[in-house]
Amino acid sequence: MAHPSKSVESVRVRRVRDGHAQRVKDWVTIEEPMEIRLALPGVPQGPGRPDTPPGVESIAVTMRTPGHDFELAAGFLVTEGVVRDRKDVRELTYCRSGRGAQEYNIVEVRLRSGRGIDLGRLSRNVFTSSSCGICGKASLDAVEVQGCRPLPDGTLKIPSGILIDLPDRLREAQGDFSQTGGLHAAGLFTGSGELLSIREDVGRHNAVDKVLGEAFLAGKLPLQDTVLVVSGRTSFEILQKAVVGGVPAVVAVGAPSSLAVDLATRFNLTLAGFVRGGGYNLYTGAGRVT
User: Fold this and answer.
1) Is the separation of the CB atoms in 140 and 149 below 8 Å?
2) How far is CA 14 from the centre of its chain?
3) What does pTM read for this prediction?
4) What are phi and psi of 150, to 5 degrees?
5) What is the distance between the alpha carbons of residues 190 and 165, in angstroms, rounded to a whole number?
6) Distance of CA 237 to the CA centre of its chain
7) What is the mean pLDDT of residues 13-19?
8) What mean pLDDT value characterizes the chain?
9) Spatial distance between the Cα atoms of 224 and 237, rounded to a whole number of angstroms
10) Among 175, 230, 177, which residue's Cα sits nearest to residue 208?
11) 123 has pLDDT over 70
């Protein structure tokens, strides 16, 4: 179990170059499970794990890179529609073992009230989305059920030359990736290309949750004048998280899925893919790119 701020560790490897081998130290990304638990005032024990105390539900386990764990938990709860307002969250803590030691792989989110939370729906959604996401038209409808509506055109404008540079600016800010080459990143930028926040993780979705969770805990949602930049491809789940966070534009190094394009179209989100080598593909929301 790593310390919550430790994201890389050293290993000894046998490196072969041009037929010559040598033993050297290398760096790898840490990957560990993190369990998210909800403490629900006034809610009896439900369908969660039997080893959790009364009023506490285990709702998800994700493989993540340690670091910014509270932001990851908060971002996950926001994008799953469990919490909508910063005031809903009373406290985030690491759990303690029976001997009082910190359990850095278990985060407990204590809510101010358990009213209005459908644990059965949450369990179904988490189980489904942990593998491939909620599929088909029902997933688009589910975003609307969470209270999301098409994003307003607003004031965000992204010069084409800035858009092309955003993945490189994200890459330059990836400190841990420079050591390991094994981390995804998500970053929030202004339309003029200023980096507001960046988070890295072994999981693409986790990196997005960390960025959105940071903004949520700071009371900055919705992020109406920002661009979300991701280091890989864009799936439905990443676009869904952007919509819930009120982010009007997503820029990616890789390709989008068909369902991601459908969601971006339906919710008036600007989506750019294959942003590299001086060019890009603009799938939706061309009005925000100048």
Assistant:
1) no
2) 34
3) 0.85
4) -50, 135
5) 13
6) 9
7) 87
8) 84
9) 19
10) 230
11) no
pLDDT at 132: 39
CATH architecture of 160-288: 3-Layer(aba) Sandwich (3.40)
Residue 170 and residue 198 in contact, taking contact as beta carbons nearer than 8 Å: yes
Maximum Cα–Cα distance across the chain: 66
In this structure, CATH architecture of domain 32-145: Roll (3.10)
Q: Do 140 and 262 form a contact (C-beta atoms < 8 A)?
A: yes
Measured in whole angstroms, how far is the alpha carbon of residue 204 from the centre of its chain?
7
Q: What is the pLDDT of residues 23-57, one digit of tens each?
A: 988 778 888 999 999 997 765 544 444 556 667 88
The tokens 């760096």 sit on which residue?
27
pLDDT class for 178, splitting at 50, 70, 90? low
Q: Tell me the C-alpha distance between 10 and 27, whole Å.
A: 4
pLDDT in tens, 165-174: 999 999 998 8
Catalytic residues: 132
pLDDT at 128 over 60: no
Domain ranges of the chain: 32-145, 160-288
pLDDT of 74 > 90? The answer is: yes
The b/e string for 50-87 (b: 16+ C-beta within 10 A; e otherwise) is eebeebbbbbbebebbbbbbbbbbbbbbbbbbbbeeee
- CB-CB contact of 213 with 80 (8 Å): no
Nearest one of 45, 55, 46 to 110, comparing CA atoms: 55
Q: Alpha-carbon distance 151 to 249, whole Å?
A: 10
